[in-house]
Amino acid sequence: xxxxxxxxxxxxxxxxxxxxxxxxxxxxxxxxxxxxxxxxxxxxxxxxxxxxxxxxxxxxxxxxxxxxxxxxxxxxxxxxxxxxxxxxxxxxxxxxxxxxxxxxxxxxxxxxxxxxxxxxxxxxxxxxxxxxxxxxxxxxxxxxxxxxxxxxxxxxxxxxxxxxxxxxxxxxxxxxxxxxxxxxxxxxxxxxxxxxxxxxxxxxxxxxxxxxxxxxxxxxxxxxxxxxxxxxxxxxxxxxxxxxxxxxxxxxxxxxxxxxxxxxxxxxxxxxxxxxxxxxxxxxxxxxxxxxxxxxxxxxxxxxxxxxxxxxxxxxxxxxxxxxxxxxxxxxxxxxxxxxxxxxxxxxxxxxxxxxxxxxxxxxxxxxxxxxxxxxxxxxxxxxxxxxxxxxxxxxxxxxxxxxxxxxxxxxxxxxxxxxxxxxxxxxxxxxxxxxxxxxxxxxxxxxxxxxxxxxxxxxxxxxxxxxxxxxxxxxxxxxxxxxxxxxxxxxxxxxxxxxxxxxxxxxxxxxxxxxxxxxxxxxxxxxxxxxxxxxxxxxxxxxxxxxxxxxxxxxxxxxxxxxxxxxxxxxxxxxxxxxxxxxxxxxxxxxxxxxxxxxxxxxxxxxxxxxxxxxxxxxxxxxxxxxxxxxxxxxxxxxxxxx
Length: 644
Ligand SMILES: [Zn+2]
Fold this sequence. Notes:
Blueprint: E1 2-3, H1 4-13, H2 22-31, H3 45-48, E2 51-61, E3 69-79, E4 84-92, E5 95-102, E6 105-106, E7 108-110, E8 115-125, E9 130-132, E10 134-139, E11 149-154, E12 157-162, H4 169-172, E13 185-193, E14 197-199, E15 203-207, E16 214-221, E17 233-235, E18 238-245, E19 251-258, H5 263-283, E20 294-298, E21 303-305, E22 311-313, H6 318-327, E23 334-336, H7 343-359, H8 366-378, H9 394-397, H10 400-418, H11 420-433, E24 437-439, H12 441-452, H13 457-465, E25 470-478, E26 482-491, E27 503-509, E28 512-518, E29 524-530, E30 537-540, E31 549-554, E32 571-573, E33 580-584, E34 591-596, E35 602-608, E36 612-616, E37 623-630, E38 635-642
Parallel strand pairs: 2-13, 19-20, 20-22, 23-24, 25-31
Antiparallel strand pairs: 1-21, 2-3, 3-9, 3-10, 4-8, 5-6, 5-10, 7-8, 11-12, 12-17, 13-16, 14-17, 15-16, 18-19, 21-22, 25-26, 26-29, 27-28, 27-30, 32-33, 33-36, 34-35, 34-37, 37-38
Helix pairs in contact: 1-2, 5-6, 6-7, 7-8, 7-10, 8-10, 10-11, 11-12
The site of zinc ion has 6 residues, from helix 6 and helix 7.
């Protein structure tokens, strides 16, 4: 999901001084949130855990000129427990149940609360059996969240769409309204006046002849789908297809349902989006719904929503289309397993939009400017975690600053820390492992740790659970042989004592440039780096790898000061390394070291029994390595790069 409106607001607000978190307020007021005492997290997970959804057939009658739905929904379910005498669904009490049929027999039911439908069977249904029932219902659905059921007009023509994320599926159909059971397969059959077309998930397998002025559109989707991604949109669409040709030559349609007045712009945007689709397909794993389609249906909500195989979008801008497309992998194929983990959807979709700009710049410095805008957004406030601390709040779940922008930068910093090859391979493994299912942040972390050999516990404590960001105050001075650096880190929020991530610096002098990376292991780090030339200036993070602020100053007094303030630290240098790598322990005790590849394969190991020891690194080929240094009191792992 992506709200254009709030993203523009963020940019606008940078020119304002220190408004008190106005982004969230505005977001709230625009979101038209349902105000009620209903707590969506209190839905009856416990009451729906005794069955597993296998299939739904949705048969709906929709006239986009009317705010109304009627139809029949037929879920197939497998019974998980013995003593199964009733079945429970989440459904708004505003929906009128006409009847519930089970093997030709009418069943009794209750709608006990604002949301809830209890259906009683005449006798227990056997454990492990597959059964089904049909719920005939109608009514005027409430519209919660971002507008779960909306009827309005575009250019004077009626349009009706649904957008259920996060809690709104239960407003308009009987469901399990949570993140615990994907429906394995669905058919969506919509009957509507013949002047309209209905768009939905999967493949359109039939469009009937008009009967009594109405047509029926039958969409079939044979992949697991979470309830909030089931969607319909109905209006006077124009339809066209782009063809996506994959690297293996396989062709798949990109099916576009467009307002007639938007046809020209749409064709430009979707043709561009085809390139992004094949890029994501090659960078991550195969497009997950390749045997069906990808597509867009236009709606008038202020952004986009990644309905599985059919994103709903307000327009055809590069960023919006890239974001919703990215969700087909991160959000739809693999879905966040709790609303606390929404960044697994939104942080990824935001980051993948950035990657699409890195790969296909849309303007000068597009990728750099994208990164800068994310840093500026996050650092506009000193607090806030990627982890959603109030998962009952729709505003907090979809916080643009935290779930989207800080989430995307968490990923960018992991990429910096792990290196491209390891980072992307870790993501591929995560996707393959969690395919068509739900995932947690711990599962993502596990894959990245396994592939990198890193313990990422502290990284996730600081950047996922912890709040804020660091400011680095860097002072430096150098001679033609040595560069001395004092790096002090000031966290913006007391929940994190210091942030554990190597910091990139660029050294310039005498027409030469050197990029180095400094491992930070505390609030203050003092390092001496052998210099190839006399440094004239030091730039902090010129490529914007880190979510941070910085101040860099020359301080001549460093030249005469003795070793810094963190004597207990093990240090390695230089980085990138050439023929020799130095370990400095600052104690007389031995340090055991081990150099290994990102996959964990050990290359060199040994023991330092002096303060300072040289490791011959000429045997290493160019690339990323890790060195584990086990001292008397602690073990440090450093990342370093072997240069030319
Ligand atoms: Zn999104």
